[in-house]
Predict the structure.
Amino acid sequence: MAKSLTRKLKHDVEDTLEDVGKALHRAADELTDDAEEAVAQAAVGLRRAAATLADKTLPAIKGAARKVADEVKQHPIASTAAALTAAAALISLLAATRKKPPE
């Protein structure tokens, strides 16, 4: 379910950004005396897209966090091992980047 929700959210965001892109394209095409108005309309569209993205993303993030919490409760040992493995990988990456001489 999380994958389908993520996929749907991705498509919604892509559609919204496509609409904003079209508005910006129209603004660029109409660079005349009406340019200010076209740019203002594109800005409004961008603001709406950001609000829509925030509205759609927050519930998905909360749902994913809830699912992770449930998984951790069901499998505490495996979750701890996974977290320690991820931490070790991050520490290794940090150590490897520090050892590289500056270019």
